[in-house]
Amino acid sequence: MKKTLNKLLEIRVIRYGLTGGLATFTHVAIAFSMLHFFTPSVFLANVVGFCCAFILSYLMQSLFVFQHALTLKNAQRFFIVQFAALLTAQLISELFRDTNSYLRVLLVVLLLPAITYLIHRFWTYRQDTGSPISK
Fold first, then answer.
1. Which residues does 15 contact at the CB level (< 8 Å), separation at least 6?
2. Rounded Cα distance, 95 and 97, in Å
3. Does residue 135 sit within a domain?
4. Domain residues for 21?
5. pTM given for the model
6. By the 8 A CB rule, do 48 and 30 touch?
7. Continuous H helices in 1-135
8. Which of 35, 68, 127, 129 is the most exposed place for a label (fewest CB within 10 A)?
9. Measured between alpha carbons, how far apart are the two ends of the chain, in Å?
10. 110 within domain boundaries
11. For the GtrA/DPMS transmembrane domain, which residue ranges apply (predicted)?
12. Is residue 103 a part of any domain in this protein?
């Protein structure tokens, strides 16, 4: 079992999915906690949740998924991609507003991770943006 798990974790896309799942859980947990304990503002709760999830996601994507050193340039690129993904999610939701709500959510959940993975792979963590971490 451990050997199989280690083999799966060697696959970058698997690590990406796990990291994304953990970041999403973090966003939801923080936002729900903010709503329950601190503020009735969904906007504020989501901003705090997004910020916490962003930090966790950047650290894990850099170190665990793409195995790159942390740099300001990569952090800026990572933010641009993640913020653009957030805007794209809203755009998709608006473009398909007359479509079933569940289908809209599925479109976002299926399309955006694949797109952001490719952008991170070929732009954010391109070789000239930071050195790989030595193994």
1. 9, 64, 65
2. 6
3. no
4. 2-129
5. 0.80
6. yes
7. 2-9, 12-37, 42-60, 72-95, 101-119
8. 127
9. 24
10. yes
11. 15-124
12. yes
